[in-house]
# Entry
Amino acid sequence: MEKIRAAITGVHAWVPEYRLDNFELSRMVDTSDEWIMQRVGIKERRILKGEGLGTSDMADKAVAGLLEKTGTSPDEVEILICATITPDMFFPSTANIISDKVGIKNAFSFDISAACSGFIYALHIGASFIETGRYRKVIVVGADKMSSITDYTDRTTCPLFGDAAAAVLLEPTIENVGVMDQILRSDGMGRKYLYLKAGGSVRPASHETVDAKEHFIYQEGQTVFKFAVTFMSDVAVEIMQKNNLKPEDIAYLVPHQANLRIIEATGRRMGLPMEKVMINIDKYGNTTAATIPLVLWEYEPRLKKGDNLILTAFGGGFTWGAVWVKWAYNPK
# Structure
């Protein structure tokens, strides 16, 4: 029996119009364009403006665009998975809300929370459903409104994050393309270094938690940086070695866009020149679960069928991993 794989057959993204550049940010908090560029490589980030708008309002546009682009009817979609740490609300899931907004009625949908590794976790889950042979059209969304949990008086975190949504369509194939292999890991000890303190069952929202600014991202930057450099580069090399892939076999590294220095270190460790590394952190910042599909969308016109891509990410939790994808179609 021929092996069924999950092929990415389309990718689409949506970003807000509003650009928060480093100059404007420097008027809000004690920072500068030079300081931000030297440390993380971000020039601007997109921010979702408007009363009552949340993650689903970006994600529904990304998914609607994906359906139109791939000629897919909402009725054909069987599963929708949304990776996010900024859901519209605790329940119903943001995936349910997205499905309703775009008219997906014949699917089941759910969220996963794995921070910046959310998309590659969700991609593996979606691919696994396809590989069973029972499902033919699965949408995987990475979306986060990071501005909703960012403290714009904290100079250590507010330059880092932006808002965006991006989605891919997975379909079965028996060709030698698609999601080929993955290594996914986590270690709960990382919860001490990167987290959102309040709003959950341990510390429900209260006047005290709001006044103490406990509903914003907390990060020990240097610690997170060290773990990210080590784990992202290690797992990317590990998946290459596991599958006998040499640097010359790789068309692109597709890294989570958190910090330009982390991205460069991972590329060096893999033996790849920078022209083989997808980068758009300068334009969008860290959009958490959206960064990998967002950069895939931007580079889509450069990709050709059979290209070997290594997707890799590191996020709060800690979570991290790498996925080997063989691109399934030529530019359109």
Summary: The domain at 180-326 is CATH 3.40.47.10 (Peroxisomal Thiolase; Chain A, domain 1). The mean pLDDT is 97. The longest strand covers residues 163-173. The chain has two domains: 5-176, 180-326.
